[in-house]
Hints:
- By secondary structure, this protein is mainly alpha-helical.
- Strand 9 and strand 10 (395-398) form a beta hairpin.
Amino acid sequence: MSQAQPPIGSFGRLAKLAVAHSAWPKSVEVQPRSFAALLSRFDRDLELDWLNNRPECEQVLAQVLGCALADFRASSWPRREQDDAMRRIRFHDAPYARALDLLDEPLPPGLPTRLSQPSTWGRLWWHAPDGAGRSLAGRWLAARALAFNEPVDSQRGRTPAFVELSERADAPSLAPWARDGVCIAARYVDHAFVEANGFEVITSPMASEFAGDLVRWAAERFPADGNFDSDTAEQWLSELLPLSDPEACFGTLVGLCALFDELSARGVRGKSRVQLMEGFLKRRLIEAQERGSEDAAYLARHIADVFIPMMARALASGRAPLGAPRSYESWLELVPEEHRRGPDLDWMRATLTGKDRGLSSREVERAARRVPPGAFRIVRALQAANLLHEVSEGQWCLRPHWLLRVAEQEALAFLLRTSGFEWGEALLSPDTAGRVLARCFERVRIERAALRDSELDTLDSASATAAVEAETRCVGLAVALGDRFDEEWLAELWDDMRQSWISFPDGPPLPRVAFDATDDRAPLHDGWFHLAALALSEAVTAGSGARRAGPASELNPWSSAVELERTFDSIAAGLDAPYRNTELHVAALALVDRIRAAQRTGDSQVTLHRLQRPGFVVELASRGRLHWSSLAAVEHSDHPILLRLAAQSALGADAFSRAVIDAWLAAGAPGVGGTLLDPARARENGLWPRASTNALTLLLKREMRPLDDLLAQLDESQLGELWSEVHEFTPPARRALLRALPERRLRELLDAAGPMAANVATDVWALAPAATQRAVRRLLFEVPDAAVEWLIAAPDHLLPRALEPLGRMDRLDRLPSASLQHLRKYLHDVVRRKPKDVRLAYEALARLEREAFPRPH
């Protein structure tokens, strides 16, 4: 009863709800007062047979309490464990799912496996967004006595310790936990603390890795007579969510599975996330209204006008992430102004009723119901609808997690349509800055228009300055990517940027509102600001002239040569920061190369900055002067960008790839580990698919590294050309080629092949036993020596397939004498090993002895 949402405070209330329920069996006639007395006795383990003999009543009670029937029955059985609430976790986002037994069940799919192995922790920091299962993991570890579930301010300091941070902690609070045997779980990563104290950072697996397992796990927990279908649910999730989103975590997927179980496939298919959110909110409010909440009636009709503006105000406040717990008073403050003040009914009666006014008290009361009910009643309605969940005394948070994610996206879009003073506030909080800037960048690229209002012309306001700098940063990066904007507007933005930045003697100018660059969702690093400034100054110089762009500087080098080492260092650091964007990486190197061309930097690669080397390498390739040593000077992190950079140049990707391969061959085909041609990074670097068959063959003859990524990039014709040399490849290369070949293509190659080397046989038997069997049949008549080599290479579990071709021969003594002896020894060894099909081997051996090695009489 205490865990019900909302909690049910008395047996009388529970009895009334149960007896009045539409599913209450008509055969059980009992008054609420009498049933309340029964409930009191049940709670003391008395007269439980009455309940256990009436499963329909149990079902109704489980529905009223909002729990799984299995959990209700477990709690209503004599001698139940007194610590049941400590041992079992119910899922708020999936109330009708069976609870998790912390002692009998493993951690659910979606949580890192390292969490269950405290002996391997060392110093571990788990970067876990809200909903990733932080609290669940802590309770699971504590219940099994694997680790102490400690608050960050604990003075006991026991290890192994699982420390969950519900909000950001300062350095003194974290300092006692800088020791081995500790796992800190938080929605963020304190990179300074992590690096200073040698912590290893882990993340939750991507949803694409565990969604299927989680769906099947959920299916076992939902009622058997529900709407949940695993296959359909898994497909729906993949269509609804980007499963590569780091925040599509455990809690988000559990809540969506519960929604699927509630609505069935028909109820969710074809609906967007916003439609699902709106429908979910209305259903919850209507259900609250039916339970007697008068406050929910108005909100159900006007939820779209109230809910998203509330979420936007939460983001704009910048005090905490949207999913963080808030006090009741904090939720009241988030209600939009126009909905905060409810009607003064006494004043309305006194003012609007009377003979000369023509309104009755009943009419006034009816009209008052249409007036916004006030902040207090709106928040109370959200509580009654179980949309605000009390996580601790006086602290409420929005749930379920999937609703939180959708609401956040819609609130960001709403926020950016308001004044820059408002959304600029959200940029002042480390918890919301990354999300807001990411949405700004997305909107600039789509709409290619101003984000902020024209009134933001003051630098005295931190929020106004943050909005101005966010817009100029996002527009500058969009310009670097090739987006086109009005030239005069770009010039105005460039002026705004120059007015707001701050210059220090030890580096290029910086934004006034700089950011912590540890967030991987947005270009927050100063290096991205510097790239945006260079792109803007280039566009203004090209469109409006050098005079309009102003004097040359570290961020405006287009009219005269300027020392740019510090600016380039900053951009390089931005490229290596947690936020990664391949398009921007290419754009940065291309822009730096245009600066090199404009300033006519010499051909000595030693003097070039790291960012200038990729462009210089492309230039050398276009001039036919590329050497392997030049490629070795390019940073590893820039390798995947080289081909894209070449593709944007006059040289083109194909010609550049050939130039790189030629440089490698000219250098004597040295080892490629860690270089641009490293097969382990073939997917990223993209050069080998354009290589000649001769170059690929040479690599596969020498390379012992895993080659699956490389061969997966080749088409069937290339793989087929390599097949003719497969017997000369290294064993790893040979096996990788066989794995890469589609089964149909491998069968064709085996059927058409001439004599084949035996060193390929074992791998081919394992991958294509039927095709290999056919090939052996043919070779026994065409090239018997090779056929025997292939036959004896079969593993023991394929012995029937391997020996079947021998049965098709009318006389075994027709095989060459050397092959006969080889086959004879092989069959004798098989009989010695005595595998499962040893009788088949013995029969073949006996026949061979009879036909090829007859005894004298």
